[in-house]
Design a protein that fits this description.
InterPro entries: LexA-like (IPR039418), LexA/Signal_pep-like_sf (IPR036286), LexA_repressor (IPR050077), Peptidase_S24_S26A/B/C (IPR015927). With about 140 residues, the chain is mainly beta. The protein has one helix and ten strands; from the N terminus they run E-E-E-H-E-E-E-E-E-E-E.
Length: about 140
């Protein structure tokens, strides 16, 4: 099936067949439904933004340099969420934790130390990362 290409809507076939890295099989008989990438990735259009990642601090979460983040500002950040934070006027993506009244931002790469904030220090969580978009060089 061909994708329906429209600037406002991108609806592609979603296959119910799980893909193995081994023997290929014909996929046409496994078409489950159509997938609208906007609907899948964007829950709140007015509050959703895309950011390009630089660096490797979140590689353990499969967020690599060059990947596009989908960030929703309408979601209340919770313990363990991957968030886009602003520290000293710079954006960073980290995982949000709290422990003993201390807020911490953790990288998902052991080469990076946690960033700790005390009760009187300000941390601005800009939004919650809800997904990523990766395009391969072809």
């Amino acid at each position: 099936m061909r994708a329906e290409i429209d600037p406002a809507v991108c609806i592609l076939p979603l296959l119910q067949h799980r893909i193995s890295a081994g023997f290929p099989s014909p996929a046409d008989e496994y078409v489950e439904k159509r997938l609208d990438l906007n609907h899948y990735l964007v829950r709140n259009k007015a509050a959703t933004y895309f950011f390009r990642v630089v660096g490797d601090s979140m590689s353990g979460a499969h967020i690599y340099g060059g990947v596009m983040l989908v960030v929703d500002r309408s979601i209340k950040p919770k313990y363990g969420h991957i968030v886009l934070a602003v520290i000293n006027n710079e954006y960073t993506v980290k995982r949000l934790y709290t422990c003993n009244n201390v807020i911490e931002l953790h990288a998902d790469n052991p080469a990076y130390l946690p960033i700790r904030f005390k009760v009187d220090e300000e941390l601005q969580v800009w939004g919650v990362v809800v997904g990523t978009v990766t395009r391969f060089a072809v």
